Amino acid sequence: MPFGNTHNQLKMNYSAAQEYPDLSKHNNHMAKVLTEELYAQLREKATPSGFTLDDVIQTGIDNPGHPFIMTVGCVAGDEETYEVFKELLDPVIEDRHGGYKPSDKHKTDLNPDHLKGGDDLDPDYVLSSRVRTGRSIRGFCLPPHCSRGERRAVEDLAVEGLGSLDGDLKGKYYALKNMTDEEQQQLIDDHFLFDKPVSPLLLASGMARDWPDARGIWHNDNKTFLVWVNEEDHLRVISMQKGGNMKEVFNRFCTGLTKIESLFKDKGHEFMWNEHLGYVLTCPSNLGTGLRAGVHVKLPCVSKHEKFGEILKRLRLQKRGTGGVDTAAVGGVFDISNADRLGFSEVDLVQMVVDGVKLLVEMEKRLEKGQSIDDLMPAQK
Amino acid sequence: MPFGNTHNNYKLKFSAEDEYPDLSKHNNHMAKALTLDIYKKLRDKQTPSGFTLDDVIQTGVDNPGHPFIMTVGCVAGDEETYEVFKDLLDPVIQDRHGGYKPTDKHKTDLNFENLKGGDDLDPKYVLSSRVRTGRSIIGYTLPPHCSRGERRAIEKMSIEALSSLDGEFKGKYYPLKDMSDKEQQQLIDDHFLFDKPVSPLLLASGMGRDWPDARGIWHNDNKTFLVWVNEEDHLRVIAMEKGGNMKEVFRRFCVGLQKIEAVFKKHNHGFMWNEHLGYVLTCPSNLGTGLRGGVHVKLPNLSKHAKFEEVLNRLRLQKRGTGGVDTAAEGGVFDISNADRLGFSEVEQVQMVVDGVKLMIEMEKKLEKGGSIDDMVPAQK
């Protein structure tokens, strides 16, 4: 976690070699990139708000990583982190986001009319559909670094903005620290409640300081649109519903997001965005769209097929268990979502999910009948 | 944990009210002492090494405490913390250390010959004896704040100092990060091994950063003198052995400590000490002697007596389970140690343990025979 150490004024009395972390047992993106030379070059820099190199990397030092899962190992404390520490973060981004270069431009497309189809995924197979993203409010530091005053100001702005939504989006805010037992139970039953993180990856970034101060959950009365305030990002926006109508979910997602963004703009606050990185978020893995669109889908036959991994890869999709990341599939039901975040637009990514899931369901039906799926194998997207 | 937030350059743009933590659900010494006015007064201060008020208090903000156990809720990042933030720490110290005033002077006495008796605690009741303390090295910041370079320098100096010990103190250093499986198992079997802390109280202070870099355990060949390097304090020094010869344990403790101090002094790095606070350590609860002298003793009858707590109180002793703090007693065996740290010398504290345990064993023997202990209850020390 970015600690006292990270702003310790005595550390410059020591050489870069003496301060350089021991990454010999580490396997994460930060450890792959951060050579001693790079550490020496960046170690005395700080962003205007005071975020240092040691702040950026502490989570990656304290969490050496997993032999099979490549974690990111670094976080941003503010918008300027990605600029001041670009010599570290550009290679991390390139490695994590499929070769995305420092000169590349990212497309943003939140026009739901551009999505083709997506309203007819077979509900016998697709149990639920969901789209999520994150947003950061320009002018405030990010969760690893924000002060209590900043965090509370973000909450105030969010509550005000969300409070003015109406129609399908009319809803209510539940502050974590004032929640009644009844409200808490309802939010748990709805699978909406988020709690103080326990993952050392998240805790090590400093995002959980002062919990539960200025954290809360907003959702609409219909329970199809949900916003988390001050969790891993300033805002996490989620649209979801049972069944396979991804088109409607994406529609609501775009409409809601765009409304929220204009409400913030009215108060003089934009979302952090630039044409290279798209939407700027705490974790480099969420840059670009920050979007994960997915379905819970029954694929008991396809998932046992030897080409399942290959198919997902070619479709640029990833699988997870229905408990989310790092969980196992139960009863042949998988969470299938886009693998990319940066370098493709929101519409591109949701289109990949819609088209890909449609194909997977076709394959499942074929295999159910004992037929081959060889002619259905897709090309690499 | 003192995080990025704690050196966030934007926080002073927010009012003290906006930044003041919500301590309404808190029960720790910091929360009792930190009024909005004190927060206002201290929030733009920092020590020469850059430790801020938010660094001091983050652990107490993140750990509201327990209704029955009063935690401290604040830590020092360097020697100067106790001066720069005295408006907060003096009341905390006074509350924690039985009314110790800012003008009081602390006595240090590590002359083991001043201990009377202590070599004849009945080994049928006293299973083991142990004395521990902590030491901080002048010129380096403390575990919540130290940089990797500083921590490594402390380790290097400690190894040098400990390697120069001979006779009964001749021993070996085991760095945590290079330990072989065999060495690790042996240290576990000897009950010497310390691991990365899991307590959120400790983690929140920042002392777990960069684990296990520059952490290690040194012990003498006889396994009666042990030093932990860079755990919660720069050094933790422990003397222990089976049986009831506390006099011998204390002798070894004092002699070993003084030998180590002499080596550090030679390099112009003595131990942090002043005549008001005694030995300066990370946690305000360990100021003064930092000493806990204790025994594992069988008191199955006395511990069930209605006056057990009262007796301990008057003897200025405390009980713990044999697993250490926050554990339960097993088989009527208790860990009995001095309750005080500041305002009494080392000799005085160990004397209280020796005399107190002797008395309690007499009481135990009386109760075994069915006698009364009413006439044995001591006056308040």
TrEMBL record, chain A:
Q: What is its EC number?
A: 2.7.3.2
- Residue ranges for the region (Disordered) are 96-117
- Which InterPro entries would you find in this protein's record? ATP-guanido_PTrfase, ATP-guanido_PTrfase_AS, ATP-guanido_PTrfase_cat, ATP-guanido_PTrfase_N, ATP-guanido_PTrfase_N_sf, Gln_synth/guanido_kin_cat_dom
Ligand binding (ATP): 128-132, 191, 236, 292-296, 320-325
Record carries keyword Kinase: yes
Alphabetical list of PANTHER family matching this protein: ARGININE OR CREATINE KINASE (PTHR11547), CREATINE KINASE B-TYPE (PTHR11547:SF23)
Q: Which family does it belong to?
A: Belongs to the ATP:guanido phosphotransferase family.
Name-wise, this protein is creatine kinase
Where does this protein come from, organism-wise?
Answer: Huso huso
From TrEMBL, chain B:
Task: Give any Pfam family that matches.
Answer: ATP-gua_Ptrans
Kindly give the Gene3D superfamilies that the UniProt entry links to this protein. ATP:guanido phosphotransferase, N-terminal domain, Glutamine synthetase/guanido kinase, catalytic domain
| E.C. no | 2.7.3.2
User: In its UniProt entry, what is this protein called?
Assistant: Creatine kinase M-type
Please list the residues that bind ATP.
128-132, 191, 236, 292-296, 320-325
Relate the protein's function as given in its record.
Answer: Reversibly catalyzes the transfer of phosphate between ATP and various phosphogens (e.g. creatine phosphate). Creatine kinase isoenzymes play a central role in energy transduction in tissues with large, fluctuating energy demands, such as skeletal muscle, heart, brain and spermatozoa.
Q: Which residues form the Phosphagen kinase C-terminal domain?
A: 125-367
Q: How does it assemble?
A: Dimer of identical or non-identical chains, which can be either B (brain type) or M (muscle type). With MM being the major form in skeletal muscle and myocardium, MB existing in myocardium, and BB existing in many tissues, especially brain.
Instruction: Offer an example of a GO molecular function term for this protein.
Output: kinase activity
Family note? Belongs to the ATP:guanido phosphotransferase family.
Q: Which UniProt keywords apply?
A: ATP-binding, Kinase, Nucleotide-binding, Transferase
Span-the-membrane segments of this chain are none
Give residue ranges for domain Phosphagen kinase N-terminal. Answer: 11-98
Q: What class of enzyme is it?
A: transferase
Which organism does this record belong to? Huso huso
